[in-house]
Structure formats: C-alpha cells, structure tokens
Amino acid sequence: MLVAEGREFLDRAARLRYTMDAFHRWLLATAGDQKPINPALFLDTPAAYFAGSEITGTELHEALAHLSQHKLIEHIDTEPATVAITPQGVSCALAGGSVQDHVNQPRPGTTYNNYMPNAKDVIIGEQQHLTQNNTDGVDPTLFAQLTGYIGQVSTTLGMSETDRVELERVAQDLHAEAASENPEPGRLRQFATQLKDKLLEAGTTIAATMGVQMADQALAALVQ
Questions:
Q1: pTM for this structure?
Q2: CA–CA gap between residue 32 and residue 207 (Å, rounded)
Q3: Residue ranges of the alpha helices (H) in 32-130?
Q4: Are 214 and 90 contacting, i.e. CB atoms less than 8 angstroms apart?
Q5: Which residues contact 144 (CB under 8 A, 6 or more apart)?
Q6: What is the 3-state secondary structure (H, E, C) of 122-188?
Q7: C-alpha distances in angstroms, 22 versus 19, 42, 51, 74?
Q8: Which pLDDT band holds residue 92 (cuts at 50, 70, 90)?
Q9: Exposure string over 120-154, b if 16+ CB within 10 A, otherwise e
Q10: 22 — phi, psi (to 5°)?
C-alpha cells in the first residue's frame, strides 16, 4: 500500500511539474507581450497531455496557483478569468530551465553558487561557462540572463550597426561584472541602466519591451 501511494505521489508531482512547464511555455508563445489570456485555452492544445492522458482542469488550476505564488503569472480580474505572464515569468522562460529550476534558485542574502551560461556564447561565440560563488548578498543571475537575452535579440531590434555594436559592448561589460567573483552593485546598476536606455531608444517592439522589463527586474533586485 505504501509503495502504491508513493508511486501515486511521484506521478502526481511529475504531472504538476509538466503542467507548469508546458503552460508557462505556451503562455510565453501565445501572450508573451503580457496581454491577458484565458488559461483554459491551453487545455485545447497538443501540449495539454502527459504520458498519453489529458491534463485536467483541476491540474491546470493547481499549476496556475503555483505559477502565481512564485510571481511568474498574475491573475486578472475579468470574466472569464484571465492570466498574464509577468516580467519575472518572461525572464524565467528565457533562462531556458524549468519552472522548478527557477523556484529553487537561491535568493539575496544567501551564498550563491551560480552555474551560468556565458552571455558571450551568443554575443561573440565563445563556448565557455562559469561557476560563481558570491556571499555579499548580490544575486547576479538576473543580470546574466539580461545579457544573454540581449545577445539573442540584438540583431532583431532594427538598430543601426553602430548602435547594435554599442549595445552588445555594454552587454559584455555587464556580463563581465556579473561573472566576477564579487560583482559591484554600482557597476551592475550602471551597465543595466545603460542597456535599458538603449533598448528604450530602439523602439517599442516586443523584443525591446521585454528587454526593458528584464532590466527593470534586475535593477529592482539590487534594492531588495
């Protein structure tokens, strides 16, 4: 009996993890501009299946509760009820990991052991990774994610070649600071603010707007 109950718990946990990840990806692809959307529409998609069986409304409701708890989505008071992805939810999705990876990240005030992809993988083609140990209360993860995002979208922003090169240069400076042994909050703020200003100058495309939101989120983390 205990074995059966343990298996049932593991199956239920696996279904919940899958539902959170699948819905989160679907929400970014469908309403990544943060427009409210009826979450029930997800149940009509091919992704709403796990191990050959349909995701139920109850399972989706539970997944939404967890995503909301961790501020990856927000509920909108409409009829019918809708949800919207948050800037933190966009950042989580762009990081490429699972929702659980994001939830399990250490928070400011602790020791960080961050294994972060080098943003220069995207910007200048270096295939390197780094492990960072930081105990001064500054979590550089959001800044590293921002620089990686800049590398992915810099050529899609419609900027002049000069402006694009300058944007990527600032992103590299920010990444170097975030990847240093003891990131300096003032320099993180300086480079992230420069990136935000350049993204604002780039216009109001979805890519630029998401970058601005990621910069705001990273800057806000410095004062928490």
A1: 0.49
A2: 10
A3: 57-69, 87-95, 99-103, 120-123
A4: yes
A5: 114, 116, 117, 119, 175, 178, 179
A6: HHCCCCCEEEEEECCCCCCHHHHHHHHHHHHHHHHCCCCHHHHHHHHHHHHHHHHHHCCCCCCHHHH
A7: 5, 9, 13, 17
A8: confident
A9: bebbeeeeeeeebebeeebbbbbbbbbbbbbbebb
A10: -65, -45
Q: Which two tokens stand for residue 154?
A: 């810099």
Q: Phi, psi at residue 85, to the nearest 5°?
A: -75, 145
Q: Tens digits of per-residue pLDDT, 139-194?
A: 788 888 888 888 878 888 888 889 989 999 999 999 888 888 888 889 999 999 99
Write out the two tokens for 172.
């590299």
**How far is residue 181's CA from residue 130's CA, in Å, rounded to a whole number?**
10
Q: Which residue has the tokens 């620089």?
A: 147
Question: Are the CB atoms for 152 and 132 separated by under 8 Å?
Answer: no
| Identity at 96, one-letter amino acid code | G
Count other Cβ atoms within 10 Å, centred on residue 174: 28
Tell me the per-residue pLDDT of 40-55, one tens digit each, with 9 for 90 and over: 999 999 999 998 899 9
> How many CB atoms sit inside 10 A of residue 31's CB?
18
Residues 128 and 121 sit within 8 Å (Cβ to Cβ): yes
